[in-house]
Amino acid sequence: MRGGLRTRYREEEEESAFVSMTDMTVSFLFIVILLLAYFAQQYSENDTVARSIYEKVDKEREEVDKQWKEAQRNIILLQEAIREKEKIIADLQDQLKDKQKEIDELNKQIQALRDKIRQLGELKRLRQVDPLEAYLASSASQRRRILERLRDQLKIDFPELDVVISEETDALRFQGDGLFDTGSSTLRSDRKPIVETLASRLAQILPCYTLGKHARWSVDCNPGHAIIEALQIEGHTDSTGDFTANLTLSTNRANSTFTTMLERASELVEFLNFRGQPVLSVAGYGQMRPVKDNSTKEGRDTNRRVDLRIIMYTPSWSEEIERIRAALELTRLGEIAN
C-alpha cells in the first residue's frame, strides 16, 4: 500500500513538472509572437527601395570596389616607381658627389696653373731688364774688356811688368816698384817705354768708344754702343813726406805721364766724349788713396803709382741711348760726330 502511494506520488510530480515546462514554452512563444507583432507593426513600405535602384547601387558599389582595387594596384605601382626613382636619385647623387670631387680637383689644378702663370708673369716681368740698366751693364762689360785688352797687350810687351785691373774693374793699375822714384815726378827711364806703349795701344782702342774726327765705331769692337766719358790718368804717392807736397807731386806725376803719352800719340786729346770734351784728363790724389800698407817698402812702392781709370758715360734716360748709338754710327761712315 505504501509502495503504491509512493509510485503515485512520483507520477504526480512528473506530471506537475511537465505542466510547468509546457506553460513556460507557451509563455515564451507568446512573447515571441508579441515581438513579431511589434516589429510587423513598425514595418513600413517607405523603408524599402526599388529593386532597380538597389541593383544600380549594387553595381555602383561593385564599380567603386573595382576602382578602389585598381587604385590600390596603381598605388603599389607608383610606390615601386618611387622606389626606383629614389634609387636612381641616390645613384645620381653618388655620381654628383664623384663629379663634384672631379670638379674640385680640376679647380685645384686650374688654381695651380693660374698661380704658375702669375709666377711666370712675375718672372717675365723681372727678366724684362730696363733698357737703361741693360745699357749700363753692357758699358761696364765693355770697360772691363778694354782694360783686359790693355793689360794683356802690356804683359806681352813687358812680361815683368806688374800691372793689374783694380778691384772695382774700372782702372788699370801699375804696381811693383812704381813708375817714379820717391819724391820725383819724372818717369824713370826704364819705365817710360811702358807709358809710350800704353799711349799707342789707347790710340788703337779709343776710336771705337769715342767721338771726334779720329773716331771709327764698328759693331765688332763695340756691339753695345758704349761710349767713354773720361780716360783719367791718376797720380798717387806713398805716405812719405808732407801731405800737401804729396798732392802736388801726384798731380805732377799724372801730368808727366800725360805729356809722355801725347809725345807718342798726340791724337789722344782729340778723342771726344758724348759732351764733345776730350776724354783724356789728369788728376792727383797724393797719399789719399793707398792700395797697400805704407808701413812696408813694398806697400810704399805700390802706392807710388799711376792708375789709368776709365769712366763710361751714363745716360740720364733710356731715350738718350738712341742718340748715343746714332752718334757712334756716324763715325762708322767717316763723319765727324760731336
UniProtKB/TrEMBL annotation:
Which intervals of the chain form a coiled coil? 54-123
By its UniProt entry, which InterPro entries does this protein fall under? Bact_OuterMem_StrucFunc, OmpA-like, OmpA-like_sf
Specify whether Coiled coil is a keyword of the entry: yes
One Pfam entry name: OmpA
Domain spans labelled OmpA-like: 167-314
Membrane-traversing stretches: 21-40
Query: What keywords sit in the KW lines?
Result: Coiled coil, Membrane, Transmembrane, Transmembrane helix
Q: Domain of life here?
A: Bacteria
Protein name, per record: OmpA family protein
**What species was this sequence derived from?**
Chelativorans composti
